[in-house]
Amino acid sequence: MWGWTGWIIAGVLGLACWPVAAHLRRLRRRKRLLDQPLSLRDQAILQGNVPLYRRLPEGLRRSLHGLIQVFLAEKRFIGCGGLEVTDEMRLTIAAQACMLLLNRPGRFFPKLRTIYLYPSAFVVRHARSDGLIETEDREVLAGESWHRGPVVLAWDEVRRTAADPRDGHNVVLHELAHQLDQEDGVVDGAPVLENRSSYRSWARVLGAEYAALRAADRARRPTVLDDYGATDPAEFFAVATEAFFEKPREMAGRHPELYEQLQAFYHLDPAAWNP
Hints:
By secondary structure, the chain is α/β, with parallel strands linked by helices.
C-alpha cells in the first residue's frame, strides 16, 4: 500500500519528470522536422520572395529548410488590422528569421512565441509622465520586437525590404536580431556569446564601431551601416546584422573587425556566398 505519503512522493516525482519528458519530446520533434525538406512549391515561393535565399550555397539552403520547418511548427502567426495570414507570409518571414540560425544549432528564438502581422506600418502609443503631466507619443513602425515577448511586423515592409538583398535594410533580420540580443534578459547589443573571452573583443570592436557611426551620423557622412544604428547599442547590433547579411562585401572591406565579430557569432561568411 502506498498510503498518502507514497502518493505524494509519486506526484512530486511525476511533476519533476514532466519537464524533462516534454523537453525530450520537443527535441525528437525538432530532429524529425530538421530532416524534412521544403516542398518544391515552398522553394519556389522563397525563390520569388526572398532573393537572399538564392545567394545561399546549396548546403546552407538545405539546412535552412529544416530550420524553417521547426520555426513554422513552434511559432504562432496572428493577423492584425484585418490581415489574413497566409502560408506564403509565414514561409517568407520564417525563411528570413532562420537565416540568423544557420550554423547555430539548437537555438530557435526561445523567448519568441508569437508574431503579429499587420498589412502595413502600424501605430504604437507610448505614454510618458514627468510626475505632473502625462503625455502620449505616437510612433509609426514597420516592425517591433518586444522584450521577452512577441515580434510585430508590417507585411508590406517585409516584402519591400526583402526584395533588395543588397540595400542593407531588412525588417525581419532587424527585429529577429533583437530577439537574439534579448536572450540573456538584457537589451544591450551583446547577445549570448560562446565564451567569456568573446565579450571582451565584442565590446571593444562594437563599442568603437558604434562610436564611429554616431560621429558619422552627426557629421552626416554616409556609411555602410544605416544611421539608425546610432540610436543605441541594441539598434547598432540589429543594423549591423542587416548589413552583415545584405552588404557583406562592403562591411568586410570597410569594417573588417566588425565583420569578423559577426562572422564568429553567426558562424557564417556571407561575403563568400553567390553574388
